[in-house]
Structures are given as C-alpha cells and as structure tokens.
C-alpha cells in the first residue's frame, strides 16, 4: 500500500507537466443553456472482459452538440458546471437518458451494465440516492445494472461529506467505482473506508505499461490491492495490442480504450459489436 504512494510520488516528479486544468472556454450561462435546451448527448464507450473479450457494459460519456462549435468534450464544460451549480441538473439528465438507453438495449436483448460519472457535488445532495433509485424504477432496471464512477482525486477531499450518500447507494445495491485511480493521493487505509466495488486504473498507467517500469509497477500494485480487497479492476486507455496483451498477462478484469472502441452514439453500438465479435478470436496473444 505505501509502496503505491511512493511510486506515485516518483511518477509525479518524473511526469512532464501537463496542461493542468482544462481551459474554460464556455461561460456558466452557455453551459446552463446547453443543459436546459437538450444540447447534451450521451456517448457510450464499451467495457469488455479481458479473458473473453465479451462486452459487459458501457461507460456514459457526455458530449455537447454545440450549434456552432460542433461536438464539445466534457473537459471543456464539466468544470464550469461544477463551479456554477449546474452539475446537479447535468448529472440527472445524463443519468436519466443512460437508464432509458439501457432499457432500449435490454428490450433489444442486450443486457449491459451502465456506468455514469458523478461529481462529488452530486453525492453531497441529500436526495441523490432517492433520485437515482426513482429513475431506475422508472426505466424498469435493476440497481445492480448501474455503476457510479467517482474520480479518486476528488473523492478523498470530500469523502466525509458524501460517505452517507455513498453508503446508502451501496445498501441499495448500486455499484461504486473509483475512477482515474492513481491521479489522487489516496492511501489504502483511506480507500478501505469507502464502500466501492470497482477501481479504474487511470490511462496514464495503462497505455505503454509493458514498456515502462514505473507505469508497470503502479499498475501491478493497484491490481494487487484490488485483488486483496476483492473488487473488480478496469484498465482505461487500452490503446494497442501490446496494452491488451499486458492486461491479459496481469489478469485485469475489464478493459476500455481506443483499441476496443471510442465512445460512440448509442445507435452505433450494434454495428460496433458485430464487428468486434469478428475481431475477438484474433485477440489472443500468439
Ligand atoms: P473518465 O471518466 O476518466 O473517462 C475516460 C476518458 O478517456 C473519456 O474522455 C474517454 O473518451 C477517454 N478515453 C477512452 N479511451 C481512451 C484511450 O484509449 N485513450 C485515450 N487517450 N483516451 C481515452 P472524455 O469523454 O473526454 O471525458 C473526460 C472526462 O470527463 C471523463 O473522464 C469524466 O471524468 C468526465 N465526464 C464525462 N462525462 C461526464 C458526466 O456525465 N458527468 C461528469 N461529472 N463527468 C463526466
Ligand atoms: Mg469515468
Ligand atoms: Mg476514468
Ligand atoms: Mg480518465
């Protein structure tokens, strides 16, 4: 456990400084308008099982179909929504549509676990659990088909304020996932106190991990920790065959990334799946 912290510290000292906070090009008024006028659309990225390649679920990733700017990615408006009290409405819209889509897929014979990203501000709202449960009932789904992803770097700073909500969601059988593991400063001891079911290892420790000792060490340590806790492991940012083979060799449970598929509109999923099914047998390492 403490080795992970030490490794991460080393990693941060080594890693080139990235752009930092995403540039905020949009004003609160613009984002509020986008939310209210239905300009947000859900895209979905497949999550597949590493041993079999089978499609297990999708992660909901919101996009903004901007009338002038085209497709805008969440890094350019989620921060604004969080800072200006818009994130609550935004999440509720994304979640409601994701559950409605899950129902359409279910009715078409495709049962998928749906992951939705939530912010700490959502969890801080006392009625959040009831809202989520209400929407699941309305969509005719089961609570265990939904996974809520919370980013690790935010989780620890506000964990206490939201522990109540996290615990109640867990009691209702809604799964919790720790997103972008490795980007925060959590220790194993802190994580142990949070009721979660899945970790997603951040893509900065996945892509190229087989060729880089530090990434490799952080990845394998995270995997070992998850195994000890008996929780599901997901690798994000699987971009090539080498990444995929590395996950297989390490025994990671699920994979997500461009090697498998980019996030796509719901209507594209069946065609992607048909194509993926033809690729699957070829994925085994030689
Ligand atoms: P995230 O939850 O960690 O989602 C993964 C991000 O990695 C997505 O970016 C996805 O498109 C991208 N990605 C997936 N596979 C690969 C790959 O192989 N290589 C690379 N380089 N990138 C890959 P996206 O869609 O731009 O989303 C960015 C972040 O915005 C998400 O990170 C999530 O934290 C946040 N977000 C997205 N939708 C929502 C939402 O509805 N609510 C909230 N609160 N946050 C959201
Ligand atoms: Mg996520
Ligand atoms: Mg992530
Ligand atoms: Mg990420």
Would you write up a description of this structure?
There is one protein chain. With about 290 residues, the protein is α/β, with parallel strands linked by helices. It is about 45% helix and about 20% strand. It contains twelve helices and ten strands. Helix 1 packs antiparallel against helix 10 (about 215-230) and helix 4 (about 85-105) runs parallel beside helix 6. The radius of gyration is 19 Å and the shape is globular. It binds ligand C2E and magnesium ion (3 copies). One magnesium ion (MG) binds next to loops.
Blueprint of the fold:
Layout: H1 2-14, H2 28-36, E1 40-49, E2 55-66, E3 70-72, H3 78-83, H4 87-107, E4 113-117, H5 120-124, H6 128-138, E5 146-151, H7 152-155, H8 159-171, E6 175-181, H9 188-192, E7 198-201, H10 213-229, E8 232-235, H11 241-250, E9 254-255, E10 264-265, H12 269-279
Parallel strand pairs: 2-4, 4-5, 5-6, 6-7, 7-8, 8-9
Antiparallel strand pairs: 1-2, 1-9, 1-10, 2-3
The chain binds ligand C2E and magnesium ion (3 copies).
Ligand C2E binds at residues 45, 61-62, 73-75, 78, 91, 94, 117-119, 149, 151, 179-180, 203, 236-239, 256-258, 263.
GO molecular function: cyclic-guanylate-specific phosphodiesterase activity
Protein name: Diguanylate cyclase
Keywords: Phosphoprotein
């Amino acid at each position: 456990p403490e080795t992970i912290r030490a490794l991460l510290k080393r990693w941060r000292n080594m890693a080139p400084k990235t752009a930092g906070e995403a540039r905020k090009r949009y004003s609160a008024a613009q984002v509020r308008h986008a939310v209210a006028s239905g300009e947000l659309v859900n895209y979905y990225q497949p999550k597949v099982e590493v041993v079999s390649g089978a499609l297990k679920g999708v992660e909901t990733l919101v996009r903004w179909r901007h009338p002038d700017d085209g497709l805008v990615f969440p890094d350019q408006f989620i921060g604004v929504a969080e800072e200006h009290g818009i994130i609550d409405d935004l999440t509720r819209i994304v979640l409601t549509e994701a559950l409605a889509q899950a129902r359409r897929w279910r009715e078409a014979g495709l049962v998928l676990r749906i992951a939705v990203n939530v912010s700490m501000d959502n969890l801080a709202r006392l009625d959040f659990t009831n809202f989520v449960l209400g929407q699941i009932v309305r969509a005719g789904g089961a609570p265990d088909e939904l996974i809520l992803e919370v980013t690790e770097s935010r989780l620890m700073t506000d964990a206490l304020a939201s522990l109540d909500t996290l615990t109640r969601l867990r009691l209702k059988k809604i799964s919790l996932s720790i997103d972008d593991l490795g980007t925060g400063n959590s220790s194993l001891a802190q994580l142990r106190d949070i009721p979660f079911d899945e970790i997603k290892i951040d893509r900065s420790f996945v892509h190229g991990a087989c060729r880089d000792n530090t990434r490799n060490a952080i990845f394998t340590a995270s995997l070992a920790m998850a195994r000890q806790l008996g929780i599901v492991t997901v690798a994000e940012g699987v971009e090539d065959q080498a990444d995929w083979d590395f996950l297989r060799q390490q025994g990671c449970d699920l994979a997500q990334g461009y090697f498998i598929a980019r996030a796509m509109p719901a209507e594209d999923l069946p065609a992607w799946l048909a194509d993926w099914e033809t690729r699957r047998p070829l994925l085994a390492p030689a």
